[in-house]
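BUG: 3D viewer hangs when loading the predicted structure for this chain

Environment: internal workstation, default settings.
Expected: structure renders.
Actual: progress bar stalls at 90%.

Input used:
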Amino acid sequence: MDLRILTLFFVLTVAVELGKASDLFDRFVEVAITRARTTRGLAFSMIGVTALLSASLTNDVALFLVVPFTMLFPRSPGLTRAYLVILEVLAANLLGAVTPIGNPQNIFLYARGEFTPGSFFAAQLPLSAASALLLAAGVLLFIPRRTLPPPAEKSFEVDPVLAAAFFLLLAAEVASLLGRIPYLAPLLLSIPAIALLGRRIAEADFSLVLVFALLFIGIPGLERGRLYQLLDPEKLFGHGPIGMLLSGALLSQAVSNVPAALLLTPAAASHQAFRGLLYGVTAGACGSPIGSLANLIGAQIYVREGGRPHFFWKPFCIVSTVLLVILVLFASGLLLLD
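Structure tokens produced before the viewer hung:
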């Protein structure tokens, strides 16, 4: 058990619940999308909001906040909501990954790979920039330019006390992740935060804490299994940066990128190998529906809010597979240039 990692996920969950309870996130998304006047303007706004929220709160949380707002817009000839949600899911996976807390596996790899804030950002920025260009091309390709009807109106008043508590706890979380304060400091701060939330704490989703706790137990057992020994991608591609990139991207298609990161970390023997693995599990979120848990979350919210599954999954698989191939090739070029 890596208690530091589990503590960070616990504190992040409490901080996110403070932000939700304050209506800060809803207000932020509302302001961003209500200013959009065209379908393409809306798409770019939602991609930007998703990227910012993912980089700050993890990709899963961002989709819970953004996708329901997207589904508030009425159906119109110029607005294909399935494509909007697909672009948001991809933005959550690829653009939010620029920070250590953008994706769940990033926190783990940041700590184990001994990255500094500067080295992590420098590693991920080129891949995220390439992803942003590809998503922009996706907007131009799939979203026709049409005047947009206004969304259903909602009004959100931000609670200043809960919002301030959110920023304080998130700042402590980031400081702990960067090694500036002990990891127990944000944990202690989360106690009054929980008291401030009251009964609302029961609505917090602590699943990431449980998932990582179970993975810390289950991964060593899986590594000893015959099936893993037979299909071990490390043996197919090697332990170098390119090998870790290909292994991470391939294994993510079968088991999702979080377990893939944990499974492959012991084989990463150098900082460059960790960089290759980071690229692999970031790009590996694309392609398979289970490449990232965020893919399933985005689809689930889309269907829950009235969308049809086949309108989502068919274009998602095509678009994300193309992105997977392009990003793996691009990441390979980045590693070869070093």
